Amino acid sequence: MNLDNSINDSEFPPKQLLKVLLEHFNAGRYIESENLSKSLIENFPKHPFGYKILGAVLGQTRRIEDSLIIFQKTIKLFPKDVEIHTNLGNTLKLLGRYDEAELCYKNAIKLNSKYIPAHFHLGVIYTQLGKLTDAVESYKNAIKLKNDYVEAYYNLGITFKSLGKLIDARKSYEKAIELKPNFADAHYNLGNIFFELQEIDKALNCYAKAIELNPNYAKAHSNTGNALKKLGKFKEAKNSYKKATEILPNFAEAHFNLGITYIEFGNLQKATKHLTKAIEIKSDYAEAHRNLTLIKKFKSQDDQYLKMNELYLRKEISDEDLCHINFALAKVYEDLENYEYAFKHYSEGNELRKIQSNYNKNIDIEIFNQIKINYEKISIEAEKFNKELKNHLPIFIVGMPRSGTTLIEQIISSHPNVKGAGELSYINDLGGSIARGLSNIDHHSLLKFRNNYLDIVHNIAGDIFFITDKMPQNFLFLGLITSVIPEAKIINVKRNPSAVCWANYKQYFKKDIGYSHSLDDIIAYYKLYEDLMEYWSKHLNQKIYNIDYDKLTIDQEFETRQMIDYIGLKWDEKFLSPEVNKRIVSTASNVQIREKIYKGSSDHWKNYEPFLNGKLNLFD
Q: Rounded to whole angstroms, how far apart are CA atoms 454 and 481?
C-alpha cells in the first residue's frame, strides 16, 4: 500500500495528524498507529485514511480476519477508492481467497487503469491461480506505468521461468539487478537460469554475488554445490552443501544433496545420516526416501517403510513423488524377497514415468538409421586431414546402460595413469548432429569436433595420459569416434540381455531415458543396439574390444588382463580390487560399485519371471 498517496488536500482532518499517523505506521509503532487510526475514524468518519491505516495495522499484526472486516466495511463507505479495493484484495490474498482478490484488483483497475499496485498484485494473484500468461501481462502493465519497478521485473523473471522461457527470465532478472545491484535474490535466481542454460561459470558468479551480499544465503550455497558438481568439483561441492546445512540446519534439500554426494564418495554411513536428516525435516521427501532405500538393506517393514507407504496412499501426492515412492517401495519388497509386490511397484512407477517422458520409439529408430546412413561420408571426410595424437588417449566404455560399464571404468581407473571421468556428454553435444547428418559433414566440422573434444579431455585429465569416457550411449557414435579420434580405445561391455533389460526397467535414472519405462520399449531399444553393434563390427575393422560382464564375474583375472593388454597399460594388482577404488562415482551404479565382483547378478531378473509373461525369455 502506498500510504503517502493517502495524504491529500482535504479540508479535514488536519494534515499534521495524518502525517503523525503515517510516521507511526512506517516506523512499525503499531499500537500507537491503531489507537490514533481509531481516533481518526471516530472524529472524521467520512475520511478514508483512518480506515486504511487501521486495516493495514490489523494485517501487519496478523489479525487478518479483523483486517478483512475493516476493509469490507470501508469499501462500502468509499466504493471508488482504488487503494481500498487493492488493500481488500491483498487481505483476501493472505486468506487464500484468490478469486475474490482477483476481482478486487480488477475493480481497482476499472476505477483507475493507471494504478500501478493493482496491476502488480493482479500479477501475483494470476501466478497463484496458475494463470501465468495473464501474470506476465499484469507485470508488464505495471512496468509500462513505472519503468523502474524492480519487484515487477523480478516477479516477471519468476513467471517466465515457470513458463520455461529462460531467456526472457534472464533478461528480467538482469533488469532487476541493473535497477537494484544489491538485490541478492535476483542474483540467486539469475544463477538458477544460467544453471539451466548450462552456463555453469556464469551461474557460479551469480551465486557468489548473492553470497557476497548475504553470506548466510543457504540456498545460494547449496546451489553453488550443484554447479560445482556439474564441473566435476565434488569436494568443493560437498563443502558448499555443508556450509548450507551449517547456516540452516533444517534445510532438507541441502542435507539431501550432501547425502547424495557422500554416496558418490562411497561414504555410505554419512550418506545415510544426511538422507535420514532430510527425511526427519521433511517426512514426505520422496526423492530422499528413494535414495535412502538404495543404500539400505531392509530386513523388515520398518519406520521408513511405514512413512513411505503412508505417502503412497495419499490422494494429493504428485505424480513425480509417487514415482519416487513406487521405486522406493519396490526396493523394500525386493529386499524382503516379496517379488510380486516389488514388481507391482516397479510397474506403477514406470507407468507414471512413461506418461511424463512421452517417449516415441520411432524417433530412436530414425536416429539409428541416420547414423548408419551418414557414417560412410564421415569416414571418407575424416581421411582428408592429419590427426596428430595429443597429450591424452581417451578410452570409450560403451554399451547398454546397466550392462556393467561403471565396473569396467572402476577397474581401468584403478591405475594411477588413468583418469576416470565418468559419463561425459561431450561426444553427443559436439558431434551428435554431425553423426546424424543434421549439420555439415566436412573437413572443418570434423576437425573442430576432434579438437574441441580433446581440449575438454585435456582440461579434465590434466597431466594424466589415459582418460575414460563412460557414457554408455556413445555406442551410437562409434563410427564418428573411430574416424575422427582413431587413436582412442573402445570397449563395448556385453551382458546377459535379459538381465540388462530388467536392470533398465527397475532403475530410476537421474536423466530420464525414455525407453526404460516399458519392457516392450526396452526390448525394442536393445535390438536396435544389437543391430547397430553388428553394423559397427562389420565396418570398423575390429577397432572395438568386446568384454563380457558375465565372463568377467566368473574369471576376473583372465578377462581383466586381456582388456588391460588391449588398452596398453602396465599390469597392476589394483585392477582386481575395483571396490577399493576411491574414485567419485555419480552414475546409477555408485552403490553397487563399492562391493566386490560376484557371480550370479545376471540371474536376479529370474525372480520376476512369473510376472513377465515370458517377455524377457525372448533372449534365451
A: 12
pLDDT in tens, 181-210: 999 999 999 999 999 998 999 999 999 999
Ramachandran area for residue 462 (φ above 0: left; ψ -120 to 50: alpha; else beta): left
Mean pLDDT of 69-93: 93
Per-residue CA distances from 471 to 426, 455, 547, 586, 587 (Å): 9, 18, 16, 12, 10
Indicate the SS3 state at residue 472.
Answer: helix
How many Å apart are CA 147 and CA 136, to the nearest integer?
A: 15
Q: Using CA atoms, how far apart are residues 175 and 357, in angstroms rounded to an integer? A: 35
Q: Each residue of 20-42: pLDDT tens digit?
A: 888 888 898 999 988 989 988 88
- What the block records as the C-alpha cell of 107 is 475493480
Classify residue 555 as exposed, middle or buried by CB count within 10 Å of its CB (0-12, 13-18, 19+): exposed
| Residue 1 confidence (pLDDT) above 60 | no
Query: How far is Cα 228 from Cα 232, in angstroms, rounded to an integer?
Result: 6
b/e sequence 288-319, b meaning 16+ C-beta within 10 Å: bbbbbbbbbeeeeeeebbebbeebbeeeebee
Predicted confidence at residue 174, as pLDDT, reads 98
3-state SS track over 596-614:
CCCCCHHHHHHHHHHHCCC
- Can you read off the three cell numbers belonging to residue 262? 557422500
Please write down the long-range contacts of 185-189, taking CB distance under 8 Å and 24 or more positions apart: 185/154, 185/210, 186/154, 186/157, 187/213, 188/217, 188/219, 188/220, 188/223, 189/154, 189/157, 189/158, 189/161
Give the strands of the sheet with 466-469, arranged side by side. 418-420, 466-469, 393-398, 489-494, 544-548
Four-point Cα dihedral 14, 18, 21, 27, nearest 10: -140
Amino acid letter, 436: R
Question: Are 188 and 157 within 8 A, CB to CB?
Answer: no
In terms of Cβ atoms closer than 10 Å to its own Cβ (0-12, 13-18, 19+), residue 444 is exposed
φ/ψ (deg, to 5) at 487: -75, -15
In angstroms, rounded to a whole number, what is the distance separating the alpha carbons of residues 455 and 414? 24
C-alpha to C-alpha distance for 149 and 459, rounded to whole angstroms: 43
- Summarize pLDDT for 254-300 with one digit per residue, the tens: 999 999 999 988 899 999 999 999 999 999 999 999 999 999 999 99
Residue 451 in 3-state DSSP? helix
Q: What is the DSSP letter of 571?
A: P
Sequence-distant (≥ 6) Cβ neighbours of residue 61 within 8 angstroms: 30
pLDDT band of 178, cuts 50, 70, 90 = very high
Is residue 321 within a helix (H) or strand (E), and if so which, with residue range? helix 319-335
What's this model's pTM, rounded to 2 decimal places? 0.84
Which residues in 375-483 belong to E strands, given as ranges? 393-398, 418-420, 466-469
